[in-house]
Amino acid sequence: MAMLMMLILQWVFPAPKKPVDAGDADAAVAQLADSADGGQSPDGASDDDSSDQAQDGDDGTDSESIVRERINESILYPSDQEILDVVKGEVAESAEINAWLRQRSLTSVRQMGNLTTIGSLYESGTDRYLITLNPLGGTVRRIELNVRDARTGHYKYRDLIWKGGYIGSIEAHDTLEGVRVGVVGPGTPADLATSADSDGGIKAGDILLSLNGESITNAEEFGRMMAVTHPEDDITVKVKRGETEIDFSTTLTHKPIELVRPEPGVLDPTFVYDESFQLTLRVPTDDPRKPWTEIDADIRESQWEITKSDDNNVEMRFEVAPAALKKHGLKGPVAVVKRFGVPVLDEADVDSVSTRTWHWDFDFEIENGADTAQDIGYELKGPTGTPSETWWYSQKTHGRASALFSVAGARDVLGSTEYRNYQFWGCPEIVSEALDDNGQTQFFADPYEAVENPGASKVNWLGVDTLYFNITMFPDNGETFDVFSAFAEINGGYRNGQTVAPKIPKNTREHKAVDCTFRVFKAETIAAGNSVSQPFDIFSAPKDPDILEQYGLEQTRAFGWFWWCSKPLLWLMHLLYWLTLGITYTIPIIIITVLVRCLMIPFSRRAALNAQMMQYLQPQMKAIKEKFPDDMQKQAVAQQELFKKHNYKPLGGCLMGFIQLPVFLGLYRGLSLDIALRDQPLIPGLSWCSNLSGPDQLMYWKHLMPSWLGEAGWFGPYLNILPLATMVLFLVQQKMFTPPAVDEQQKMMQKMMSFMMLFMAIMFFKVPAGLCVYFVTSSIWAILEKKLLPKPELDTAKLEAADDKGPSLAEKSMALLGRNKTSSDDAAREKIEMRRKRNRKFKK
């Protein structure tokens, strides 16, 4: 008991994290500032001298080691220009730190300014997306979905993991000046903040000073401060803009779901994953065995020039370095242009799920300014950092019918070609093949296969699929997209001019959460002075069946073998939800359970009579066992005749279970997959059990459980109370309905059933809360039915009259069996005797 109280206190009052040593941070700042002033250490020595002193000394406080240590600890991030200067070699004289900071520059710069946005999160606006674009590499950094609940005005699809308030994805990061705001999206609480001293809200480049009067010392501390806020909280934020300090007030909201986001490096926090829709140029080859050489690596790492920009459209341009072109036998100028656009919707289409408006625009163009035609290939990466919120409890059905023993993951990759209409690669099998030295590439468009089947290279669409959301790339012209190759892969990163893979968890259960995407290779022959372009529609939406139907993606909702039961149950549940004024989906689930139980009343009463009949026949069955203790065949025949005499069917009590099984499995698949139940509460206004499509998550206990048993194990990171309540009701129901045991065998069977209930509690520990509502309601109904409805009674007089009618059929059959056995024994003896006579005659 004492241990339990300690665990509860530890959960309620967690130990505070060790604060950052301000002195160390200041020292790191001073060291980098000195290096920026001319590469001098604090004592005036050069970088080389400082490095030598560090090697000779014990404390190792040279500029390089301190900066390396502080950046690794996320205390210090240099500003944009400082990082770029270091990368160009204009500041640091040390080649080692220059290369190392170039590697770190992706993390540093991407977390700071120079970002831009299209679309908005205005509640009454006509934008469905807020997209954050990263000119460093010309990629998509973040996609936030702006879909509102018609009654409350809140986000319909919220982040299930983040429980704090949302001020906006402002990309706060540490600089020498303080915690800087990297970007502010239109319509976010930061953008809508008000101040008497400023027009408009918080701006990119502002330095965050305090939140609700508490000083903000670093970006990590700001994140912790935001985590303890709540949606609808009114907060005050003090910022520094130039030399002026400004106080802002704003109201926090829930955090909208991010369909694409920067993937966090869990096993290696320093690892920087590639962002979405990254494009690089390569030298193509017709031989599939030869790799395509990258023309200019700076296209991934350098800032693209923003040539056009408005609220809903951005155009970026990158010109390939002449030296890089010359190295590969190409002429310049060659440039790449990317265009991103968020359509402005009509007011009638904002809430519509039956129109083809759930995509945004993306296209790129490769310009050949040379005086001759050139063959240029490109590599395009798909969406990365897609939602993985359900990975530890979801049981997603694999989308490939032939993959009987394969499992789906949190981020599966799928596609369609003219040769194969639908292809599905589960995240775990992608990881498994990648870890295998002899593993196979999961192709959608296979260059070898395309030799014999040209349709294999003609892609209809490619996408990344999660349990509730889908991001798919469609050619804008509605036709196929002819490629050299396209395949699924683990999303990697870029370090020191090479593409590298991230660390993969050793626990195979965690393979479901690995970030997977696709890559496309295509070669283009571009005429002199011309260009080629490829426009796409990027479908980014929840997996609502009506939305999926508009894009031909119905197959992405895989219900499995019990689809014929899941779909009607979901249709009925949505109808009942509408009839009950949309208060909560708990009510439709309860009504469905009551309807099923009402239809089951005749079967349940027959099961009760069956149990009574079994109890009535127990003495006669015991007598049969005593009469034939060593002959199981005679026991079986006698019992069958006894059951036939009294019209007793041993499996009649199991009929209810067989009938309910399709309902249970259909409801399980339906509740797990239906986007409508995601983020729907058990009881409106109650923070516990706020998602009927997942476990109820009463208490976070990840830090109390070993990893093999917690998040990466069977139980998950949360204690769920509804499955335990369900099993308690099952045990009560079992005790009430099971007749008393009359022999040791029955006692053993009843004990085994009790242990089976405990096993079921473990098996059902992570089932959707909505399914637990079904079980709880069904168990309570069964108990009330037993207590309130008249108990069905056997006609014992008729049974006793049947027992008094002379020899039973069992006895007759036993006598017949005995006679048949005697006759067969006599015949056997006669055959043996005849064989002996023949043998004697043969010897004579």
Automatic annotation (TrEMBL):
Gene3D superfamilies: 2.30.42.10, 2.70.98.90
GO cellular component, one term: plasma membrane
Acidic residues: compositionally biased ranges: 45-62
Compositionally biased tracts (Low complexity): 32-44
Family statement: Belongs to the OXA1/ALB3/YidC family. Type 1 subfamily.
Full protein name: Membrane protein insertase YidC
GO molecular function, one term: membrane insertase activity
Location of the protein in the cell: Cell membrane; Membrane
NCBIfam families the record matches: yidC_oxa1_cterm
Stored SUPFAM superfamilies: PDZ domain-like
Any single GO BP term: protein insertion into membrane
Transmembrane region(s): 575-596, 651-671, 714-732, 753-784
Domain of life: Bacteria
Region described as Disordered: spans on this chain: 32-65, 815-844
Source organism of the structure: Mariniblastus fucicola
Gene designation: yidC
Topology of this chain in the membrane: Multi-pass membrane protein
Residues of the PDZ domain: 144-243
Biased composition (Basic and acidic residues): 822-833
Entry keywords, A to Z: Cell membrane, Chaperone, Membrane, Protein transport, Transmembrane, Transmembrane helix, Transport
